[in-house]
Amino acid sequence: MTKKKKSIISDQRFIVLLVIIALTAVFSIMSKEFRQYTTLLSMLDFSYYDLLMAIGVTFPLITGGVDLSIGTGMVCYALIAGTMVRSHGWPVAAAMVLCLVLGLVIGALNGVLIGIMNLPPFLATLCTCMITRGAGSLCSATPWPGLTQDGGWFHSIFKITVGTGRSASRYPIGFLWMVLLVLLMEFVLNHTKFGRYTIAIGSNKEAAALSGINVKFYHVMVYVVCGLFVGLAAIAYAAVTPTVQPGTGAGLEMDAIGGVFVGGVAATGGYGSVIGTFVGIFVIMLLKTGLPYVGLQANWQQIITGLVLIVAVLIDIIKEKKKAAM
Amino acid sequence: MGDVILTMKDIDKSFPGVHALDHVNFEVRRGEVHALMGENGAGKSTLMKVLTGIYQKDSGSITYKGQEVAFHNTREAQDNGIVIVHQELNMVGDLTVAQNIFIGREPKKGIRVDDKKMIEDSKKLFQDLNIEIDPREKMSNLTVGKQQMCEIAKAISHKAEVIIFDEPSAALTEKEIADLFVIIRDLREKNYGIVYISHRMDEIKMITDRVTVMRDGGYVGTLITKDSTKEDIINMMVGRVIYEDPKDHSMVAPDAPVVLKVEHLNAGKMVQDVSFELRKGEILGFSGLMGAGRTETARALFGADPKQSGKISIMDKQSGQLKEVTINSPQDAVKYGIGYLSEDRRRYGVVVQKSVNENTTLATMEEFTNGIFINKAKEKQVSEKYIKELATKTPSGDQLVVNLSGGNQQKVVIAKWLTRDSDILIFDEPTRGIDVGAKNEIYKLMSKLAAEGKSIIMISSEMTEILRMSDRIIIMCEGKVTGNIDISEATQERIMDKATRNID
Amino acid sequence: MEKLKQNPIVKKLGLNRILLVCILILMFVVFKVVLGSKFPVGDSIKSTLNYVYFLGFLSLGVTFVIATGGIDFSIGPVMFCCALVSGYCMTSYKVPCVAAMVICVLIGLAFGIFNGWLVSYLSVPPFIVSMASMNIAKGIASVFTKTQSVSWPLASDPTNGWFRNIVSYKGFPVGLVIFLVMAVICGIVLYNTKPGRYILCLGSNTEAVRLSGVDTKKWNMLAYIICGFLVGIAALFFVATYTTVQPGYGDQYNNEAIAGCVMGGTSMVGGLASIGGTVIGVFIISLLQQGIMAFGLGKGQQMIITGIIVIVAVYADVSARRRKN
């Protein structure tokens, strides 16, 4: 019994949870505005796409790779799909499907470049990052339908609005979907062949191959799954961004990847958890939301995310070193 | 002992330039432990690789359960019930024990992997083997011994009938070995055919029923273990005539000063309380079996790996006195005039994508720079001097090292340390992977260096090499020094005896 | 082909480099023929050169890092950070122009030291370090300038306009001269000095170099420092050509710089680097950008094409290496 207790306390996810509580407490004490429901609401609104990207990129990171194209990819899909709705009269549902398909295609491209052609992951995805960013900037700034417009129903996926105007009450239903998705992907990671082989590739690719696993196939699939989640993120992004701007999206991958590392994925792969990613993202989101309330400009958040990423990775490296020394 | 389950007859296998297996015979019965013995490079592993389909035989036949078979890969051999428990463990450290045992063939329940069943099955496997391991434990948290047990469990779960243990005890502690033997005996009871590859004489006596000895890729003979003595087996292993004359007496002057003194060196499990002295102009041979801790000793001495304790003293060039030094990194070692020539030249010795010239000066850059620029003319001159002196076969000093043969790569590494004017050279398996002609050249070179006053530590697993080159021989076994004999008193049998764990 | 390879002049110059120059010339000719008057020779060369200046320094810098087997894709944002912070010092704190230029280079150096220390001494994987410092650079620039764009003095500025002479003086391309001189210096450092020798060797086989008694961590870090320094210089050339810098950008130049470098024959696996190749690669990339623009295509297509080029170049490198082993 004592053993179990110990493992909870030393679990990074638990520590991160404490950090979340501490941050919330600090921000709440220091700022009255922060305590308001609308703040929570807007934080949740903007966390969905980050979280979806982060869930996706958790898998490449567990294999010891990375996907740098998630940020620009997401914006690119939202732009292309939005253009289809605006200029070609596609129904919103079709546009959403298009987002997913585009995500799958770019994911598969990444997978083939990395898993089959053996390019270094950061370089291959840096290129697809540029390509998706370029493709995105070929579109014009695209607003998806607003809440009250035709096709605006898709906003309700993430937030249910009852009533209109100022008196409307809003419920962040998206959070529920996120929890369900996180649980689903945690299940996939721990209880399916795909998840198991993802870990195996990150931990010891040679041994995995010697055990008769089709390593190439699963390596590609890891990036395909990541791409699918980026497609989902594109929908969530369109829902909170009034007008998606072409050429943006670079840097958004940082929040997601930073969150995953805070959640405790190993820097060299082989270990990670989707629940960890979930709590990790909220550290980033809290910083992003809370810092302006305590008088730091939003841009500080970029610097802090950068430092948080390095610290998170360093903690992992030091842990590994200690383990190796034992 | 039951009936014969596996027969390998007249197996022949050649690689370019090497006749690796020369008409070897081998058989395994149900319910026996059959030892496969021989020195390093005798062909034991190759034989097992032919059996499990990693290599294809050139000729001969393999009969398994009454049928002639030829496997094309380990998977096929596995499916037919022949499995190998490797010396290096093939484990995914981040997965649990159960997950590792069933990797690649997970039982499924709908879309999910049936972990419950895997854990149950693993528990049953461990129960049958009388091992206590929690199948839910992460593999990387287990000791090497326990990991080995998991490998065995994995092997058995393949419905194996023949299990090959490739030096299973190499990384295990005494206690773990005892546990392993309990399991092996148990498996014998259950009528498995077991092949046990090892160097360790006492283990062979303890656990095996028959011994097959190989030497130089050939089959020497098979003995019933309980009817034969240790000496019988050693004689079969070394029995070859040595063509090159062994040294009969030390070439070191009796009053030669000690240049290096190592006292109570400890570094990890493989280097325990190692002490020795090296004298000027001496070739000090380090003999022992694979995994005896010789390379580890050298690396710790050289600062390449961390050490826990130990005192190292080196003769000061000016005063001629021994002085204690701290060596925490290769930089320190090089500063004190030690050079290390690794057995794995491509990984630790040369930078293969660079030229002979560049490699020659790698450890001595300071002397080849005027201010900040590299004096390429001087570099070329020195490099060419050594090319000539060591008779390195290369079209020019600009040739990339990757294009040279093993022997010539070794000469480049030697040149690197001679350029540095290192007084103490550690040769780790100096002639591994080098053909016979080049070997002789390296030997001559080493003798010449010693005659010129360099002191040499030579780690070698080849008995002939040890007897031919060394002035004195240190024998190691399991991280400890088990013998220190002068060449005039050294015989193959004596060395082998000490190397197989007989501390006198 | 084999015969051509054995030709002494070809051998001296390197077949790859000759091919690259041919590609460069061919590209130019194709652009001219296809685009005609939309691709005026003089202006095109001038705008290509302007692009070459800053991109060239970035490429030279990252060549050192890639030679060690590492990577740095924070160079674009770091360049912007240098230009923004030092420019802001000049416009808002009235720091003299010379001092601002020095600050600019120092910031680049600081990032180089930071990245190098993390990679070499703390063994953080280079791609993570790049990601982090990319963010940090963008953040610092935005915070410092309060998210305002910064304009460096114009040529007409009586007191500080002189600094634009580093690019061109009375029509003479000073920038080209400086760039080529710097390339030669980089070449000398990489091929003819001890640090360069160590950097190349450790990129090829770190362990063998360490066992030769070399402090590999120190020299590995140095590569990042050199890179940082050159990024600082690149920033100066950027503002001397394009005047205004906006915070939050600069990512795209990462890829273009790496593209120039890898195209020129520097191997992503480390150990092999060609400064000459990088120079030609930079010219090709820069000309390509001008060509794409002349075709009436925008930044978008530029990025897509550069992305594809890097993939092809790296794949060629990876598969060539694999065939060798």
The neighbouring-strand order within the major sheet of chain A is 1-2
Largest sheet of chain A at a glance? 2 strands, antiparallel
Helix percent band of chain B: 25-40%
Residue stretches of chain A low in confidence (pLDDT < 50, at least 5 long) are 1-6
Mean pLDDT of chain B: 87
Low-confidence stretches of chain B: none
- Number of helical segments with 4 or more residues of chain A: 12
Largest interface: A-C, 48 and 50 residues
**Whole-number mean pLDDT of chain A:** 88
Profile the largest sheet of chain B: 6 strands, mixed
Strand content of chain B: 25-35%
* Share of β-strand residues of chain A: under 5%
Widest beta sheet: strand line-up of chain B: 6-9-10-3-11-12
Helix content of chain A: over 70%
Round the Cα radius of gyration of chain A to an integer and report it.
20 Å
Distance between the termini of chain B: 36 Å
Question: What is the approximate shape of chain B?
Answer: globular
Assembly state: heterotrimer
Structural account:
- The complex is a heterotrimer of chains A (326), B (504) and C (325).
- Chain A is mainly alpha-helical and 326 residues long.
- Chain A is 72% helix and 2% strand.
- Chain A has a two-stranded antiparallel ribbon.
- In chain B, 33% of the residues lie in helices and 27% in strands.
- Chain B contains 17 helices and 24 strands.
- Chain B has a six-stranded mixed β-sheet, sandwiched between helices.
- The mean pLDDT of chain B is 87.
- In chain C, helix 5 (75-93) crosses helix 10 and helix 6 packs antiparallel against helix 7.
- The radius of gyration of chain C is 20 Å and the shape is globular.
- Chain C starts with a helix and ends with a helix.
- Chains A and C meet through helix 6, helix 10 and helix 12 of A and helix 7, helix 11 and helix 13 of C.
